[in-house]
Amino acid sequence: MKKREFGRTGIEVPVIGQGTWNLERDFRAEAVTALRRGLDAGMAHVDTAEMYGGGRVEELVGEALAGRRAEVFLVSKVLPSNASFEGTLAACERSLKRLRTDHLDLYLLHWPSDEHPLEQTLAALEKLVEQGKTRLWGLSNFDAGELEAALRLAGPGRIACNQVLYNLDHRYAEAALLPMCQTNGIALVGYSPFGSGDFPSPRGAGGRVLAGIAGRLGASPRAVALAFLTRLPGTFTIPKAASVGHALENARAGSLQLSAEDVGALEAAFAGGTDASLPVI
Ligand code: NAP
Predict the structure, then answer these.
(1) How far apart are the C-alpha atoms of 94 and 89, rounded to whole Å?
(2) For the whole model, what pTM was predicted?
(3) pLDDT score recorded for residue 271
(4) Would residue 75 be called left, alpha or beta, if left means φ above 0 and alpha means ψ between -120 and 50 degrees?
(5) Residues 119-167: tens digit of each pLDDT
(6) What is the 143 CA–ligand 1 centroid distance (Å)?
(7) Distance (Å, rounded) from C-alpha 17 to C-alpha 239?
(8) Which residues contact 46 (CB under 8 A, 6 or more apart)?
(9) Which residue has its alpha carbon closest to ligand 1 atom 6?
């Protein structure tokens, strides 16, 4: 499994991780096993949030990670509606309890809050680092302008990552956001790498390019997509899988080598948007 430094934190993180949104809807025992087998295959970056299943997904993740906490780069997120100073501290405590751990590796603001000033949230995130409740903090769904404002408030070297939508059909992040992240030592974690299940059809032009490369490399089109989405410096991806088969197929991407020709063909086939505005879920 390929790893790279997570922003400028000095911490090496696998480029392919594991998402958990909606995992409470899947068959629980299989979902827990899929996460564990995903860890065995090196996908140690596990992404969750207090929002997912109203806390039930954090509980499921806590069950999956029992006895394996030390192997994992564990990420959770505070809801913007909870992101006051005190609210952020309290939300983190609740997440730690559900996750059965005493610390996170990374704690994110899920998206910019229109209820609580960012200064307050950032002060709470810094407090949580001071208290050892999280090693790092970061942001999610911040567009380039919002990230610039956050950088002004936080100062250099504090924001570990920005987690944003990034898949074959949504490559907006490459225009302004990724260069800003790279310059400032901020990891760019791409979410919904398979479009939340809306993956390019093998019958479409892009799907045929994917299938051709996948066939040559003896991998699946999804694995090729994940390798493509982590080709640029500073990028990571977190596909969600509820079955062992899917998890292992995704982990395969961590050892795939795309040629410059493959990358060029995929860039052309999925020209996507170059608009700097970032769609937010
Ligand atoms: P996704 O990873 O783009 O796609 C998940 C879908 O792809 C599921 O239906 C899954 O099926 C299927 N899948 C996974 N591996 C597969 C494989 N090898 N072959 C065939 N199908 C496969 O969806 P996502 O959940 O939207 O995004 C990933 C993660 O990003 C989330 O889980 C969450 O952790 C994070 N996220 C963050 C935000 C944010 O605002 N920060 C927003 C969205 C997502 P099965 O489940 O049946 O395996």
Answers:
(1) 9
(2) 0.96
(3) 87
(4) beta
(5) 999 999 999 999 999 999 999 999 999 999 999 999 999 999 999 999 9
(6) 21
(7) 7
(8) 17, 18, 20, 35, 39, 61, 65, 72, 73, 74, 75
(9) 197
- Tokens representing 200 are 């390019």
Distance 145 CA to ligand 1 centre (A): 27
Query: Ligand 1 pocket by C-beta < 6 Å: which residues?
Result: 19-21, 26, 47, 110, 140-141, 163, 191-197, 222, 238-243, 246, 249-250, 281
Quick check: helix, strand or coil at residue 37?
helix
| End-to-end CA gap in the chain | 29
Q: pLDDT grade, residue 52 (50/70/90)?
A: very high
Specify the residue for token string 């509980």.
59
Q: What angle do CA 162, 185, 82 make, to 5 degrees?
A: 30
Q: How far is the CA of 193 from the centre of ligand 1 (A)?
A: 7
From 109, 246, 248, mutation site for ligand 1 pocket: most ligand atoms within 8 A of C-beta = 246
User: If you average pLDDT over every residue of the chain, what do you get?
Assistant: 95
**How remote is the CA of residue 85 from the centroid of ligand 1, in Å?**
31
Q: How far is CA 125 from CA 11, 56, 253, in A?
A: 19, 23, 33
CA distances to 43, 110, 125 from 86, rounded to whole Å, are: 33, 16, 10
Query: What does the pLDDT read at residue 273?
Result: 52
Instruction: Indicate the helix (H) or strand (E) that contains 14.
Output: strand 12-14
Identify any residues that bridge with 139 across adjacent strands, giving them in sequence order: 109, 162
